[in-house]
Amino acid sequence: HPQFARFNQRGEFENYRLPRESLPPEAGSDNYADPIGQHPNAATYQRRWLAAQRPVEVRGHPTGWNVVVQEEYDAAIGETLDRLRDSFINSGMLAVNGIIVVLGLLWVFVVRVLLAPSQNLPPGLAADAAVPLFVKSTFDQPSAPTTKPEPKAEE
After folding, report:
1. Whole-angstrom distance, CA of residue 69 vs CA of residue 111
2. Whether the model pTM is above 0.90
3. How far apart are CA 50 and CA 155, in angstroms?
4. Where would a tag sit more exposed on the chain, N or C end, judged by fewer CB atoms within 10 A?
5. What is the CA radius of gyration of the chain?
């Protein structure tokens, strides 16, 4: 620990030994509290830490010691999450603005179609064109008999 030499000179290091149950898990912890941060002269260590621990072995034999590795959360993950959040916000704002532009252009088209004179529009798109509300099918009705027109007599 960066504070080890200072605490060791004053004989305070013994106050900061960790019991095994206070060690971070071997898989790691994303909310580890550095016990040195409790000391009034080490307030800079009162932050959120990423930490993991592993037992120390020498030539395959356990020593009874564990090494704890810690990294400040904000430096390791916090800044990355902040950049990701900002990226999502910027992308969302761009998407919303794009949707607003497309809807605006669609409304301009609709208004132009509704206000345009009917002679300039294709049949069926004129504002005054009749829109049938109900179309009756002629397939269900019997067809009328077809008759040949009789020739007209000349006078």
Report:
1. 66
2. no
3. 113
4. C
5. 41
